[in-house]
Structure formats: C-alpha cells, structure tokens
Inverse folding.
C-alpha cells in the first residue's frame, strides 16, 4: 500500500504543480441583524421540521423543568428513559424508570422509550442542534436508538448562524448535528418524518441556573 | 448485473432515445425535479449572503485542488493520530481489496451500507457479492434501487425515476409487505424501517463514503436524512469509509460554508436532518476499528486537465441535474454512469479517461442553468464545450468545419456562400426530408435555417 500512496501523491503533486495559488474572501454573514429574534427564529425552524417545541425560556428552576419533562412522558405513554451519566440529577424524571447509560446494549436501548439529554450549542438560522457527546449528552447510540429524543436546549446556547457555532465550539472528536426528526424525501420527494433515527424530537428550551 | 457502468452501455444518444419513449418516467421526473427546484429556490433566495457563500465555497474547493497533495498528507496524519487506519487506492480494484480484506479478517458475511456514490462508482456491492459477502443498502432510495436490481438514476434521490405505486409493488414483491399495502410514502418508509431495524442493531461491519474529509482535524463528515447513516456509522464494530481524494476541505472552519451551501442546494432544506462527524475512533462510542480508503481512480488524471479539473470541485449536491432540461427528459440512466446530469457529463468522461463516454459532453443544450445553481460555481457549459472540442471528430466533420472556417474568414467567401445557400439549402432540405445525402445524420435532430431571398449585404449595397 505504501507504493500506492507514493504513486497517488506523486500524480496529484505533478497534476496540481502549475495551478495558480488562489485566494478568496469570506464575505458571508457571521451573525444576524440585532433586530432578528434568534429564539423566535430557532423555534420557527424547529416547527418547520415538525419537531415538538416546549418553550420554557424563562424557567430557571430544575424542579419545574423536570415536572414538564414528566408531563411529556405521561402524555406520550413513554414508560422508560435512558440518560447520560452527566445529566444533572435534578432534571431526571421520577415518574418512570430512568436508566443511566453505562454501556447499555443496542437491544436494551431499543426497548427504552426515550432518551433525555442536554446539548452543546444550537443554530437558529437552520434550526440545528449540535451535540458534541460530552457527559451531559452521552455517546451517539443513546440519542439514536430510542424512538424519542427529548433534548434540553439552554436559551443561552443558541446562536444565530453556523459560523458562530463553529467558532464557539471548535473541532470535536465526534459530533452529531440534528435538524428535526429523522426524515426522508426519497419517494417522489415527499418529505416523510420518521425513518430510522428517532421519529420524535422534543426540544425543551429553558434558562436553568447553573 | 454489474454496476460498473459505462463502456458496455449504449451511447447517450441511443439510450436517451429509448428513455424518451417511457412517458411514465418523464412524468415522474418532471414532478420530482419541479418540486425540488422550487424548494431550492426558496431556501437560497432567503439568504441575503447566498452569492458570498457560493464564492467562499468555490474558493475553498479551489484551494483544496491547488494544495491537494499536502492536504491529503495532513489529513492522513491527523486521522491516524486519532486512531484511524488510512489506506490508499489508485483504482477501484485496490479499494475493493481493502474492503474485502477487512470483511474476511472479521469473518463477516454481510455489511450495512450508507448511501455512497463513490462505492457505486467502484462497483463495490457486485464485487463483494462475487466473493460471498452481501452489501445491504440502507438508504431508502438505494434500497429501492437495489431490490429492483437497477442502477441509481440521480445522485441525491437514486429512485427518482420510480413513483409511489411502483415502489409499493417492489416492497410487496421483495420485502414481504402485505398485498393490500397502500402507496402512501409514510407507510412505505415504515416498512423500510421495520425491514432494516435488526440489520442495524446486529451489524458487525459498515461501509460508507464521506461528504467531506477535513484536513486539519482528520475528521470525516456524512450528511443524511433518515438516520440510516448514523446507524451505520455508530453501531457496528468496524467501519470502512471510501473517500475520493477530492473530498478534502482544508479546515474545520470551512464546514461553516460547505454545510450552508450543500443542504440548501441539495434537498432544498435549511439543514439536512442529520450530520455525523467522526475523527478516528472514540472510546466507548462507535466503531472500535475505523478504516479510511483514499481513492484516486482517475481523479489525479482529471486534476492535470487545466480546463476540466474544476469538475473535481463538485460536492455532489445534484442541483445541476434538477435544473437540466436534458436530464429532466431522459432521466439518469441514459447517461450510463453513477454521475448523471450536467456534472456527470463532464466528470464521467474525465474520470474514465480517453476513449470513454465520449458522447456525454453532447448531452446538453449549453443553456447554462447548471452553472447558475452550482454551489461551487463550476462553469459546466465551458467544460462541456472544451470536452467537445478536444474529443474525437470524424474526417468529414473536420473537413466541413475547415471549409466553414475558410469561408467565414473573408468577405468574398461569405458573398459566394450566400449565393450558393439560396440554391443549396433548399436542396439540402429536400435531401434531409428524403433521408439521403451526408446532411442526414446532422439534420435528424436539427432544422435547417430558412434562407432569406436577399442577404443583408445585398440589401445594404442597393439602399
């Protein structure tokens, strides 16, 4: 293989030898206008993707947020919840069994009703939630296999544009960007929500005191 | 059936003539491309900085091509440091050999697949089937194409040529769906979900492509909608990603541009539902063994073409095929390549090399709609013209055009031509109507111009 490596690199090097060095400017937006309401924009985008939004933008109290989560579980008949080890205790529901993900198997996750996690940063303009799979979000399988993902988004973690999010977050080992529930447009380009990923995405906006 | 396309296929004109007889195909395509054109237009027009994003995206990919060798080395170093095993392949066969070796070492009889044009390009599924390893496509459209035993006809929606009831029939025949299944896309999607669920949860190995390979971090990026990508990239123990060397972007920061232009150009969404980014292996998260195959397969030869190399900037969004009047009528299969449409017409002949797919550069009206929508501003019409000029031409055609050039380059020749045209063209028209004479091949799909009774020059001289 090392021979192949040299062959490819040599061919590429000689092919691009005479190419002029180029420069370009990055004149695109890196932030929104001050008059744009980032929060309203974010909610609008999420609803457009048919995510469910629970707007507790003023809520600073963990107990009240937990009560709201429990109401969601009851309303949807969700009987068990998997959480990452780093999810604060005060946010964990008490009405249904809660399993902490310390290496749950795929089939264990498959029979769990929902996952409940926090998130790293969100982008209003495209309605995108970025997970960097830190301790409060868990590994990738946790937010993938259960059919419902309840995702907590702190309103201060929402930025206007993708360039702001990229600048704030920096490179991560693994990331998942989520813009709405799983969807497909493969049949006649009709958008259908819910294929292999979580069919339900519930975004809970809050202002929890840390 | 081999997927390694082109060469054994009929030429574009012959295949297009057949495709045009299929009125169901034309209906399906007109509906689908019309829908997606509207979506794309809405989400690009709402961005006041769209043209700036395009310019930056173009700049990023141009920089990629200019520094490609260094960026590949940088990518390799960073990916290896993060725990990935990096392989190099100069041909389809070499890339397939890597996948085969990994599959054999782990003793797997099958693997799950994320939709990947690059693996279609190298004919991976057929090659693996031949050695007794099954490749399961997991993208809904790829699954449809696979069970129909067909080729993809569009880079984004490979089953765009099929409508819902055709798909329903396939699911009844091949996936064991009930006879009374309705042709509702939501119902069909849920059948695919049930069919693939245990395959995902039990898979030991997956094969993917990548949308971007980030040089300064060694990360790979896959964008998708359904979650089948996340399943394949997360759950198996072993992952092999086959990445064309042109998929590099220099830096992490460049994602902020590419991830704005790609989804909006592609599915016409503000963002695709899921994007997965991984850097080598991560502890207790995802595959413990991660392979990356950097594939040349004609790319370095294309890079050496001063005019044609821009085709390598393509990020496979498919906007060009959705606006192309030729694609909309013939569909993707007529191009005989995994890369159909305008981009395929410039990419396929170059990737395959001299003597291959020579009719594809003519599969265009040169209207320029593709250039207008391309998120990395590839001047597809100019490259088409260039490929036509440098392609093979018959002796009669060369002689005829040499005569035309001689005639048009001096006034006396021009005057003589005008006089002759008044007699000659009606004769030629008669010839073409009767299908005789050398003019026939040319005039089969073109109308001969009407000759005015008096030329402009004659009129000018008498006033």
């Amino acid at each position: 293989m090392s021979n192949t490596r040299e062959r490819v690199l040599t061919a590429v090097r000689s092919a691009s030898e005479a190419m002029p060095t180029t420069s370009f400017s990055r004149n695109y937006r890196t932030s929104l206008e001050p008059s744009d309401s980032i929060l309203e924009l974010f909610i609008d985008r999420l609803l457009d993707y048919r995510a469910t939004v629970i707007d507790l933008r003023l809520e600073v109290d963990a107990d009240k947020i937990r009560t709201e989560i429990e109401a969601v579980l009851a309303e949807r008949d969700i009987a068990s919840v998997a959480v990452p080890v780093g999810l604060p205790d005060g946010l964990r529901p008490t009405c249904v069994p809660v399993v902490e993900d310390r290496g749950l198997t795929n089939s264990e996750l498959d029979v769990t009703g929902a996952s409940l996690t926090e998130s790293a940063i969100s982008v209003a303009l495209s309605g995108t939630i970025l997970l960097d799979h830190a301790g409060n979000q868990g590994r990738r399988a946790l937010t993938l296999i259960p059919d419902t993902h309840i995702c907590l988004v702190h309103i201060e973690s929402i930025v206007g544009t993708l360039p702001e999010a990229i600048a704030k977050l920096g490179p991560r080992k693994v990331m998942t960007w989520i813009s709405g529930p799983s969807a497909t447009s493969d049949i006649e380009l009709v958008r259908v929500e819910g294929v292999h990923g979580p069919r339900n995405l519930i975004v809970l906006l809050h202002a929890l005191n840390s | 059936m081999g997927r390694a396309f082109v060469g054994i296929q009929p030429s574009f004109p012959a295949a297009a003539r057949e495709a045009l007889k299929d009125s169901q195909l034309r209906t399906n395509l007109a509906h689908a491309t019309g829908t997606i054109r509207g979506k794309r237009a809405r989400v690009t027009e709402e961005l006041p900085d769209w043209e700036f994003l395009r310019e930056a995206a173009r700049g990023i990919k141009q920089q990629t091509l200019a520094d490609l060798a260094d960026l590949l080395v940088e990518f390799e170093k960073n990916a290896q440091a993060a725990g990935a095993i990096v392989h190099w392949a100069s041909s389809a066969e070499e890339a397939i050999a890597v996948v085969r070796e990994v599959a054999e070492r782990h003793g797997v009889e099958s693997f799950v697949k994320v939709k990947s044009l690059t693996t279609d390009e190298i004919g991976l599924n057929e090659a693996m089937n031949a050695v007794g390893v099954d490749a399961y496509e997991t993208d809904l459209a790829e699954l449809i194409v696979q069970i129909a035993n067909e080729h993809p006809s569009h880079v984004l929606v490979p089953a765009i040529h099929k409508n819902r009831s055709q798909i329903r029939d396939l699911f009844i025949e091949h996936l064991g769906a009930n006879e009374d299944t309705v042709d509702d896309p939501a119902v069909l999607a849920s059948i695919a979900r049930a069919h693939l669920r245990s395959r995902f949860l039990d898979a030991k190995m997956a094969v993917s492509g990548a949308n971007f390979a980030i040089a300064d971090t060694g990360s790979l990026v896959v964008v998708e909608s359904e979650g089948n990508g996340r399943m394949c990239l997360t759950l198996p123990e072993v992952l092999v990603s086959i990445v064309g060397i042109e998929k590099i972007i220099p830096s992490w920061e460049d994602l902020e541009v590419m991830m704005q232009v790609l989804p909006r150009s592609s599915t016409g969404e503000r963002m695709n539902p899921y994007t997965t980014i991984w850097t080598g292996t991560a502890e207790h998260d995802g595959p413990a063994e991660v392979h990356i195959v950097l594939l040349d397969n004609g790319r370095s030869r294309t890079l050496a073409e001063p005019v044609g190399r821009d085709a390598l900037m393509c990020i496979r969004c498919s906007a060009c095929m959705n606006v192309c009047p030729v694609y909309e009528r013939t569909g993707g299969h007529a191009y005989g390549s995994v890369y159909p449409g305008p981009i395929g017409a410039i990419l396929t002949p170059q990737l395959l090399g001299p003597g291959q797919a020579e009719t594809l550069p003519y599969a265009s009206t040169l209207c320029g709609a593709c250039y207008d929508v391309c998120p990395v501003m590839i001047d597809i019409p100019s490259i088409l013209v260039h490929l036509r000029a440098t392609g093979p031409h018959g002796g009669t055609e060369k002689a005829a055009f040499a005569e035309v050039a001689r005639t048009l380059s001096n006034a006396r020749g021009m005057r003589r031509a005008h006089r002759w045209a008044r007699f000659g063209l009606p004769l030629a028209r008669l010839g073409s109507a009767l299908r005789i004479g050398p003019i026939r091949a040319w005039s089969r799909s073109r109308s001969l111009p009407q000759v005015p009774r008096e030329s402009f020059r004659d009129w000018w001289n008498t006033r």
Summary: Chain A touches chain B through 74 residues (CB under 8 Å). Residues 187 and 193 of chain A are 12 Å apart (CA to CA). Residues 2-16 of chain A form the longest helix (15 residues).
